[in-house]
Write a structure and sequence with these properties.
- This protein is an alpha/beta fold and about 270 residues long.
- It is about 40% helix and about 10% strand.
- The protein has three domains: about 40-110, Orthogonal Bundle (DNA polymerase, domain 1); about 115-185, 5' to 3' exonuclease, C-terminal subdomain (DNA polymerase, domain 1, Orthogonal Bundle); about 205-274, 3-Layer(aba) Sandwich (Rossmann fold), CATH 3.40.50.
- Strand 3 (about 205), helix 10 (about 215-225) and strand 4 form a beta-alpha-beta unit.
- Helix 1 (about 40-50) crosses helix 2 (about 60-70) and helix 5 (about 115-120) crosses helix 6.
- The longest helix is centred in the middle third of the chain and has 14 residues, at about 95-110.
- The N and C termini lie far apart (about 65 Å).
């Protein structure tokens, strides 16, 4: 019987430098040893500019790659200084005055953002949209967040944050993020949302089309504001499945019925809030 073995790369496929194996708590991860690896950098840039970050329209991975090749971007903050290259940029193949102006406008607009987006954009390991939102709502300002880190705040006090996540937050290098924040960004302080906690400790799953709200994210934010939680899959921990087609034969409806989980429409959900 033939056995297949995983061949672990000894060199980075992007820069050709040696790879290293590093123990990360209960797992082992493979890293490129080159701190200036272009593969690492462009992925970091793409995340910062993408929808999970500052959402700068037009700065795709392909566009960022071209700007790196021109030596116009060598660190994240260079994004905010691209205006100086406009006269050369508009002459590059695939661009032009309109597309370049649109990108520069998007960059300028991104300077006014939210704490949630910025925390997510800077790329703290294991800190995605949900965790970034939680951190933003708890600390309300970037200064307060950084003060907490400098004072070794116990992040495990926050819901759903374990020891590993807390260490990732504390051990992250914030030097570049600090410079970007103080030099380029305007982040209004997060206001405390008034909540009646009508849905405290209630867990929901949302499926199907939405009628009363703009989209699922708006409905999710209402649930979270009122103390509830939105899960992605049906399990015995779920209290309600929200589906406007309560007689649907979808997999989530079927699973909810098997587990005895109530299936409610948006109209019935609104009664909870009333």
């Amino acid at each position: 019987m033939n056995k297949e073995y995983l061949i672990i790369p000894t060199v980075c496929p992007i820069c050709g430098e040696k790879t290293i194996r590093r123990k990360n708590f209960d797992t082992e991860e493979l890293y490129c040893s080159n701190p200036n690896c272009e593969g690492k950098f462009i992925n970091k840039l793409e995340h910062f500019c993408g929808k999970s970050g500052l959402d700068i329209r037009g700065l795709s991975k392909a566009t960022l790659g071209k700007l790196i090749d021109e030596f116009w971007i060598s660190k994240i903050e260079d994004i905010f200084n691209l205006e100086q290259y406009r006269s050369l940029w508009v002459k590059m193949p695939g661009f032009g005055p309109t597309s370049v102006n649109n990108i520069l406008t998007a960059i300028e607009n991104s300077k006014t953002t939210t704490l949630e987006k910025f925390i997510c954009a800077i790329g703290i390991p294991q800190i995605g949209r949900s965790a970034s939102k939680q951190l933003a709502e708890y600390f309300k300002s970037y200064e307060a967040f950084r003060d907490a880190i400098n004072n070794k705040f116990d992040f495990t006090k926050l819901p759903d944050m374990g020891d590993i996540t807390a260490l990732k937050i504390l051990n992250f290098n914030y030097e570049e993020a600090d410079n970007i924040y103080y030099q380029y960004l305007n982040i209004p302080e997060v206001e405390m949302m008034e909540s009646s906690n009508k849905l405290q400790n209630k867990k929901f799953v949302i499926t199907g089309s939405i009628k009363h709200y703009k989209n699922r994210n708006e409905l999710k934010s209402i649930i979270e504001k009122e103390g509830g939680k939105v899960l992605s899959a049906i399990s015995s921990n779920v209290d309600y499945l929200i589906n406007n087609d309560i007689n649907s034969s979808s997999s989530k409806n079927v699973s909810a019925k098997k587990l005895g989980i109530p299936i409610i429409s948006e109209e019935e959900f609104l009664k909870f809030l009333d």
